[in-house]
Amino acid sequence: MFKTKLATLSVAFSLLTACGGNALQVKSEHVSNEKITEIIANIESLYPDADKELKQHILSVAVKSMDDMVFVEGGSFMMGDFKAPCEIADLDKIVWTPFADCPSSYTSYETGAINLHKVTLSSYSLSKYETTYYEFDAFKIANNLPVLRAKERVEYPVIVKAIMNKPTPIKKWQEAKDYCTWIAKLTDLPFDLPTEAQWEYAARSRGYLQYYATNDGYIRYEEGALEGTNGNYHEYTKDEINYESDYQEVGLLPPNPLGLYDMTGNASELVNDWYSPDYYQNSPEHNPQGPKTGQYKSMRDLYGSKRFVTTRGKFEDQEDYYVTFGFRCALQQATAAW
Hints:
This protein has a domain at 76-120 and 191-327. Helix 1 (33-46) crosses helix 2. By secondary structure, the protein is α+β, with helices and mostly antiparallel strands. It is built from seven helices and twelve strands. Helices cover 21% and strands 13% of the residues. Strands 1-4-12-5 form a four-stranded antiparallel beta sheet. A four-stranded mixed beta sheet has the order 10-9-8-11. A two-stranded antiparallel ribbon has the order 2-3. The protein has helices spanning 33-46, 52-67, 108-111, 133-142, 173-187, 196-203, 279-282, and strands spanning 69-72, 75-79, 117-121, 124-127, 191-192, 225-227, 232-234, 268-274, 297-300, 312-315, 325-326, 330-331.
C-alpha cells in the first residue's frame, strides 16, 4: 500500500464485477474513478485468467504508479559537471561559487560529463520513488516470470514483507524498460524510463547548481561527521539526517525540493539512453534522447562514497541481480498524470 494524507484523501472505489465478493478495490489520492475503471478493464483484457489476488496486485501497482508521479515543469539548464571549488573543506557540504574551477568528480573527463552544455526539456513527470520489489513482483508474476529472491518467500501472495518496499534490483536493462512500458499498457499513458537529461534536471530540482540531490544539496549521515576547521565531531539528529549509504526502503529520508526521494542514495538508476562519453559534445539542445546505438546504457546516482548529482556511469547487463542497480519510471507527456 502507499502513503496517503488523510486530510486530503480522495477515495475511489472501482468494481470488476457487480458481485461484492469478487470486487476489486483501490484507494487513490488523485486518480479518478473513470481512470481506475479503465485500468481494471485493461487488466481483465490482458490477464483474463489471473486470480483475484493477482489482479488486485496489478491494479494497486498501476494506480500507485500514477499517484506517485511528480510533475516536472520543463525549462533550460546547463547539463553536466558545472565544476566545484578546487579547495573543499567538507565534501558533504560543497557550495558552488562562480570561481568553481575544478571537476566535481574525478570521472568527469572520462565520461564526458565535463562538457557542460545547454539542454531545454519539455514538461514531463517522474516517479517520486524508485521501483520496489512489490511493484516489480506484479510485473513478473503477471507475465509468468520468476520473482526475485524466490527462496526467501512463501507461495504467492504471501510474501516476505521486509523487502517489499526496497528498490528492486535489475539484472538486464530491458527488464526496467519492459516494466515501465507495462505500466503504460495498463494505464493507457506513455510511461517509460526517463532520459538521462530528464533524470539530471529533476535530480537538480530543475537545474539548480547543487552537488547532491537531497533536500538542501548537502548530505548528512546517521553516523555523524567531522565539521569545521578543528575537525569537531557532530552527531546529527534524526530530523537532520538526509542520506544513508546502505540500501533501505524507499522514501524514508527527505526528498529533494521537487518531492523526489532517493535521487542521491539507494540504488544507482538506469535511464533510457545509450551511453557514450562523446555524446555531451554533440547533444541537441531540445529533449536529447542519447546516442542512437551503443554498447552500454547510461546510469545515474552511481554507488560510491560521494554521489555527485552530475556523475555519469555505464551499465551492462549482469549475470545476477545486485541491489546496486535499480530504476524509476517517467511519464512522457507534457501534462500531469492526474
